[in-house]
Amino acid sequence: MAKIYLGPAGVPHSAKRKTTIDGIKTVKELGLNAMEVEFVQGVRMNRETAEEAGQIAKELGIRLSVHAPYFINLCSEEQEKVEASKKRLLETADRAELLGADAIAIHVAFYGKMKPEECYQKVKAELGEVVDNARSMGIKNVKFGVETMAKDTAFGTLDEVISISKEINGVIPYIDWAHTFARQGGKIDYGEIIDRLVKELNLAHINSHFESLEIRKGKYVDEHRSIDYNTPPFEPLAREIIKRDISITLICESPELERDALKMKEVLLKVGYRFE
Predict the structure, then answer these.
(1) DSSP state letters, 18-67
(2) pLDDT digits (tens), the chain, 276 positions
(3) Nearest 5 degrees, angle CA 95-CA 246-CA 174?
(4) Bridge partners (DSSP) listed for residue 170
(5) What is the pTM of this model?
């Protein structure tokens, strides 16, 4: 039977105070069991707070993950920007370890003037160095999740994230289902992707995001919408998950956050999943 962790990307809107600790407590009150801590605008949490939040999450049974800052590009033409990106990743990993988070979601690079294969080799070298440095700093448990991306200009096709995960120990795919749907031209076979992750990488746990994307002039754009848009639909993913003996985190990145996370829970219950 699948083991599903479900929750919002960041502090729920209904939390009385917009702190990570209050967010974790609110997630528990809502009947959800996961939360992604958002460092997208920078790592603004001190180490003491991270440790305290992690302890509370552990006590409440809330599985945490982390989203790294957006200001990361390991394929920048300017090496100083690459180095700054690596520094942000290490700072993120440090807080993630203290939080007890299992993985970091990372938008790793844009191709820029590089060919995709050139960018791939650059990401492999730079991210490999980050992971090595993290381990030498005592960061042992956090996995570096390379996120699948919607834009054709970004590193993050399904093939790329699977391949880089095979090459660097400690790197995993962080599947954004809507991004993958868009990158594949509005088509997605959830079961095939799950089976590929399990077979090719022998993953014990799959980390993922779910939301819908905006459609403009017949094209999917990376602007998040409520899951009500069904771009892509959630129920087929729910059905594929419960068919399998897998462990998965579903982080709702919809603008509706907990409302849509709770709708996702309703769908999972409808198709036969039972939360503990």
Answers:
(1) -SHHHHHHHHHHHT--EEEEE-TT-----HHHHHHHHHHHHHHT-EEEEE
(2) 899 999 999 999 999 999 999 999 999 999 999 999 999 999 999 999 999 999 999 999 999 999 999 999 999 999 999 999 999 999 999 999 999 999 999 999 999 999 999 999 999 999 999 999 999 999 999 999 999 999 999 999 999 999 999 999 999 999 999 999 999 999 999 999 999 999 999 999 999 999 999 998 778 888 999 999 999 999 999 999 999 999 999 999 999 999 999 999 999 999 999 998
(3) 40
(4) none
(5) 0.97
